[in-house]
User: Fold these one by one.
Assistant:
Number 1:
Amino acid sequence: MTESVFPAFLEMGLGVDLVGEDMTKVARRAVREAIGRTSLPGITRLVPGGDRARMRVEAVVAVPRPDEVDTAAVAAEFPYGTVTVTPVAGGLATPNGTDAPGADTMVCAVAVIRVGW
């Protein structure tokens, strides 16, 4: 029996929505950036039984309004594992320079992804 290991891998990502202030969109973009920079080719030799579905994946996503994040939509970005998404207060909302009413703020999110089993 293989002992539980968590976390074994960490990765970070940044997501940006230039207009619209969509908290789910920036969270998904931050998670996709983290996933896109990560390669775990030997993971099946490490996870018990070689089953990637047994991976434990946690995503903590910092956004200005965490209560607006659709956690199921963010979790759907991950191809494998049992995924938990936790939105927290953070990130950044700042003027985007357009001075357009209703579309003058850009939002940034930061994600930290933890993978183990």
Number 2:
Amino acid sequence: MSNKPCPCGSERNYSDCCQPLHNGEQQPESVEALMRARYSAFVLADDDYLMDSWHPLTSPDDLDLSDNPDWVQLQVISSEQDSEQGRVHFRAFYRDGRKLECLEEHSEFRKVNGRWLYLRGDIQ
């Protein structure tokens, strides 16, 4: 997977994009980078990274990705942040049988001890 394009759609190789975040070698420097890494983690069913990057106030006790859809593409519509909080508006496309479906969300992030964490999302 390392030399393949990153699932997040950055047009970079996975090894140069989301893999160092997933491996804990780097921390995302922006809320958009965290959103892209979380999307890639959903594509790869990396529940450890998803749980680790979730704010403790809103994270579930566990995460079951056994019914994870076939994610196809991520579109980041907008991203904004200040020093402590941020928002990302995105669309994630997935296959449901033969149909292409779309999940659209406005996500909120908070910085805790210098790390960006996913707080919550409002699905449109």
